[in-house]
Amino acid sequence: MNKVALVTGSSRGIGRLIALRLAGQGYDIVVNFNRNRKKAEEVQAEIEALGQKCLIVKANVGDVEKIKEMFATVLSEFGRLDIFVNNAASGVLKPVMELTEKHWDWTMSINAKSLLFAAQEAAKMMEANETGGSIVSLSSLGSMRVLENYTTVGVSKAAVESLTRYLGVELAPKGIRVNAVSGGLVETEALDHFPNREELLEDAKKRTPMGRMVQADDLVDAVDFLVSDKAKMICGQTILIDGGRSLPVS
């Protein structure tokens, strides 16, 4: 029986690349999406072309009942889960004084609340495996630095990193490793929603010590490492992939 990986928000962007990387390593994949089924079907075709099974599941991860339904579907279809990548994210990009309760609740539900309840469901399946399992979340530099218009997302990602530590400690005895990957600025479709997109890109290009921006594959490499046996003693950590951008260089 092949091992199985579920990647939320994997119909596009970094989630898609993670799903394809894991499929290339022999995992059957669950592609989760919320809006664009056509994009999900395109990823499914790419995964099946690699010789792996692929299940598409539509679910808004901000809805706990939808989360439970998604994992029940995975259990019914595959009977196991080995890797859960918590990648789906959303957020409202506005100054602090323009934020509403709806903006806050939406972002926290999609980005932070979803990790807790999805991790619960994933853990129930993974603890049945002889080799346990691995949970990895995607975070961002905004969890630790103040970025313009990024309040709701930055706070939600800080919550993801904190929750990663708590989950890491509580799930480790079950053989389940929980970690996160935090990235510097990456040029993806998500960046198109930032009103100061060009300014951010220029800043990242000029002020990253490694001499280039972080690329999507850099984050995929980190996720790939954390779910592998090479990271078997890494627990509850957030690995920062930013080319040194966050270092206090004078």
TrEMBL record:
The keyword Zinc does not apply. Keywords: Oxidoreductase. One of its GO terms (molecular function) is oxidoreductase activity. NCBIfam families: PRK07231.1, PRK08063.1. One of its GO terms (biological process) is bile acid metabolic process. Belongs to the short-chain dehydrogenases/reductases (SDR) family. It comes from Brochothrix thermosphacta (Microbacterium thermosphactum). This is Enoyl-[acyl-carrier-protein] reductase FabL. InterPro entries: NAD(P)-bd_dom_sf, SDR_fam.
